[in-house]
Amino acid sequence: MCGIVGYIGNNDSKSILLHGLEKLEYRGYDSAGIAVLNDEGVNLTKVKGRIVNLKERVDESIQATMGIGHTRWATHGVPSITNAHPHQSSSGKFTIVHNGVIENYQDLKKEYLSDVSFVSETDTEVVVQLIEKLYNQYQDTVKAFREAMGLLKGSYAIGMIDADDSETLYVSKNKSPLLIGLGEDFNVIASDAMATLNETDQYLEIIDKEIVLVSRNDVQIQKLNGSIVERKPYTAKIDASDIEKGTYPHYMLKEIDEQPIVIRNIIKEYQDENNQLKLDESIRQAMDKADRVYIIAAGTSYHAGLVGKEFIEKLAKIPTEVHVASEFSYNMPLLSEKPLFIFISQSGETADSRSVLVKIKEMGHPALTITNVPGSTLSREADYTLHLHAGPEIAVASTKAYTAQIAVLSILASDTAKAKGLELEFDLMQELAIVSSAMEVLTDQKEEIEQLTRDFLSTTRNAFFIGRSGDYNVSLEGALKLKEISYIQAEGFAGGELKHGTIALIEEGTPVIALATHENVNYSIRGNVQEVVARGANALIISMKGLEQDTDSFVLPKVHELLTPLVSVIPLQLLAYYAALHRDCDVDKPRNLAKSVTVE
Ligand code: F6R
Q1: Ligand 1: which residue has its CA nearest to atom 8?
Q2: Residues spanned by CATH 3.40.50.10490 within the chain?
Q3: 486 CB less than 6 Å from ligand 1?
Q4: What is the whole-number distance in angstroms between the Cα of residue 593 and the centre of ligand 1?
Q5: Is 585 a catalytic residue?
Q6: pLDDT of residue 595
Q7: Alpha carbons 216 and 167: distance in angstroms, whole number
Q8: Whose CA is nearest to atom 3 of ligand 1?
Q9: Cα–Cα distances in angstroms (integers) from residue 197 to residues 65, 193, 235, 405, 489, in the given order
């Protein structure tokens, strides 16, 4: 959600900024812009729409060795050129890009800026005008910048240019992600290391409310009170080739296909040389101490959490609750005496989850983050981290992160069970290896799934996904995948619940996708299918080898019953993919969505 790139060095900054913004496209945006500074002053280019449009607009003849760029996901004000970043102060001296939401922008406007006329509807313009106002008072940019940052409430990552100073990029952050990338005779700033991996793999973390002065050869980190902070860089361990599409038409398809290998990676990473589960002892102890686990997550990660609850309760015998992050802080349940919080987040940056993390840390509770990005905010701020090892996920619709989250949760639950001396009736790693092979069979069945998409979803405006028990959790994910990328209205339901109201929506031809992978509910879910078919529904039954019947449209290879979500989700991901493709939707960048949701 929104992306920032900045460069200061000896090369022309335009291409570095544009390349960086392209790499941040996956985060979701609706307008974009860059500002570069040279002897002639600041040159600003902004567009509504995609980076390709921005590239066409940028004046190639301008050479400038310093600049900032931004992709905007609208929060305050519609997507438009006027509201796109960078924003400038009235005199043009200051130009900024900003991610996040300034909660007190109306108060700041009233208190400090009643005489200023604004051109955009954004909270960001308030920030840049405030800096100018303070500069006019102090005639000192660092002082003005620092004081302005101290007045902001909310979330922000900010990069700023002072038109009279071609030696410094001014940077600060609070809650929103921002990194400094270090190079030889240049430095960069980026919301995500992926944007600037072409330039460097050395990065410096910025802690909330720090001020950073970035020049070609130096980076100075200060606290808000002006004291200097020393910090060592770290190496970003991302393989640049992981973030290329290769021959795939879309990242989503590539990421669906990567799932078998991701499961194998997870097996490798979480197993020692004696084929025993390998987990940090501190995590083992935290799980052992907990009298209740609270899983906090959003969207697809929340759906993975629902599956994880089953593992933790059934295998490790710890009562577990799963909560939607955005609701938890405002409606906190009564907590147990020794809670352990598990945050599940692909990006590790989701603001809703982070606000829960901040709250529960203030209350003194331990937290474990399960994430695909180990250096992310949720990872840094929790006590423990489990890494998904899924490789960068670029498509907005999460696929391989969901299955990786489930696999890691199964390992965590099994490890806890073993540590508690509980007997497991199966060898988890062996079962995960079977899952990985089953996934491979499924990703090879794209033609069949594409045909099913044509048969069931080609013209529909809505669809229902039903399942019971573990299949219900996957039906929620199947519905989310379909609606977010194909815009078909889709809902996931517990098979038995439909008849309590929603069955009223079933009409002649309404697609109902039913999962039947659990023996104990095989007959009852098929009964629910009969109920909707009797009312005209077009039922697509996805069952599992051993439970299949003649009416089934697709049969999954057999895997251990607890692990069925890892395989049953794959045809649902592919149905969503083909439905979006057939409707000419932008598969990797669905409208209104962002990959990294950094505002609450
Ligand atoms: C849907 C999707 C979202 C994310 C959600 C949480 O495909 O990707 O629902 O799962 O925004 O994001 P993370 O996992 O990064 O916290």
Answers
A1: 398
A2: 241-443, 445-587
A3: no
A4: 10
A5: no
A6: 76
A7: 7
A8: 299
A9: 18, 6, 11, 25, 38
C-alpha 575 to ligand 1 mean position (Å):
19
- Tokens read off for 590: 């669905």
Q: Is the CB of 298 under 6 A from ligand 1?
A: yes
Q: Whose CA is nearest to atom 9 of ligand 1?
A: 299
Assess whether the C-beta atom of 588 lies below 6 angstroms from ligand 1: no
CATH 3.60.20.10 maps onto the chain at 3-236
Q: How far is the CA of 262 from the centre of ligand 1 (A)?
A: 18
Task: Name residue, tokens 């449209």.
Answer: 553
> Mean of the per-residue pLDDT values for the chain?
94
- Helical H runs in 444-561? 446-457, 470-486, 522-533
The amino acid present at 146, given as its one-letter code, is R
CATH number belonging to the domain at 445-587, selected among 3.40.50.720, 3.40.50.10490, 2.10.25.10, 3.40.1350.10: 3.40.50.10490
- Residues 3-236: name the CATH superfamily: Aminohydrolase, N-terminal nucleophile (Ntn) domain (3.60.20.10)
* Helix or strand (DSSP H, E) at 303: helix 299-314
Candidate list 2, 23, 309, 589, residue with the active-site label? 2
Any atom of ligand 1 within 6 Å of the Cβ of 345: yes
Q: Whose CA is nearest to atom 16 of ligand 1?
A: 345
- One-letter amino acid identity for 181? G
Return the SS3 of 541: strand
pLDDT in tens, 51-71: 999 999 999 999 999 999 999
HEC secondary structure over 45-107: EEEECCHHHHHHHCCCCCCCCEEEEEEECCCCCCCCCCCCCCEECCCCCEEEEEECCECCHHH
2 classed as catalytic? yes
Beta bridge partners of 44: 35
**Average pLDDT value for residue range 447-475:** 96
Single pTM value for the model: 0.82
Which residue has a Cα nearest atom 11 of ligand 1?
299
Q: What's residue 1's pLDDT?
A: 67
* Cα 214 from Cα 209, distance rounded (Å): 16
CATH number of 241-443: 3.40.50.10490
Q: How confident is the model at residue 74 (pLDDT cuts 50, 70, 90)?
A: confident
If one compares 282 and 499, the residue with the highest pLDDT of the two is 282
What's the mean pLDDT in 428-453? Answer: 95
* Ligand 1 pocket member 301 (CB < 6 A): yes
Q: Is the pLDDT of residue 374 over 90?
A: no
For residue 537, the CA-to-ligand 1 centroid distance in Å is 30
User: Ligand 1 centroid vs 596 CA: distance in angstroms?
Assistant: 7
Atom of ligand 1 nearest to the CA of 298: 6
Tell whether the model's pLDDT for residue 24 goes beyond 80.
yes
Identify the CA nearest to 419 among candidates 277, 273, 563: 277
